[in-house]
Amino acid sequence: MKSVYYKKFGKPEDVLIYGEVNTPEPKEGEVLIRLKTSAVNPSDVKKREGSSPKLLQNGMIIPHSDGAGVIEAVGSGVPESRIGERVYVYQAQFGRSLGTAAEYLAISSRRAVNLPDHASFEVGAAVGIPMLTAHRCVFSDGSVKDKILLITGGAGRVGYYAIQWALRGGARVLATASNKEDRQACLDLGVEAVFNHRNNGWGEEISRYLDGEKAERVVDVEFGANLEEVLSCIAVNGYIATYSSTVVSEPSIPFRRMMFMNLTLRMVLVYSLPEEAKDEAIAMTDEVLRTGAFSHRIAEILPLDQCARAHNLVEKGAPRGVVLLSI
Known about the structure:
Radius of gyration: 20 Å
Number of domains: 2
CATH superfamily of the largest domain: Medium-chain alcohol dehydrogenases, catalytic domain
Strand content: 25-35%
Order of helices and strands: EHEEHEEEEHEHEHEHEHEHEHEHE
Shape: globular
Low-confidence stretches: none
Structural class: alpha/beta
Distance between the termini: 11 Å
Mean pLDDT: 96
Helix content: 25-40%
Largest sheet: 7 strands, mixed
Number of helices: 10
């Protein structure tokens, strides 16, 4: 089968290879998927750069955790009725060498989730990890109905879905964005107000806007860089759910200040979530996919053999939305 793979870490144009590899066969409990699309997540880019040094101990990696396609065969223990089913895949390359940047993928039946007929394969590849991450960040500490919820980086891959989950849950939603286009994208979803996180003092600006109230929940894309601003606009007994801290990769926290505010800090990583949390997110995702309730930001669709270009786009942070590969 045609695939993209790498055998060493480095720049995408130096290490990503497009070529033939063996087509996998489904083992017990697995399905074989003929992939149509593969999504490039920031975590995929970081792995290819070398963020997980032991990743190459098996010799070769086919990257990417998210994708979508059609089940063509099943292993023992999986109902044959699944053959022909449209599915999306998440965390395909977690704890495994073979991800979605290929014509075929053999993976646990549990990780191949039914994709409603009217949802495109492009949307299927886009939702996976970002949608599940956003769901966990918004709902992990209970209902958000009538709560003030701040989402930093609201036009980003996770933030964009977090806004929609929060609004669906009945929250009063504020967001941050750094340019006019992203600000408008958040407003178009129904966000009440958007603040520029490039401006010093944006946390105090949010506090003034709320006129004595504070954000009760925060979904944060840059924990270390944003913490001081967040602390100036979060309520006592508030919750911070964060899924990334790239700018300040090893942040320190003002422990006493946060303790006296009785804050809860939750760090979210889809791969290690309890299975019941994943199942809850998947069930709610199924509902919004069936009804077409959510908007999706797809920045660019490239052919599989342009995987290096796709990685460069994501690495530079330029695209507004997900970068996909068409297979």
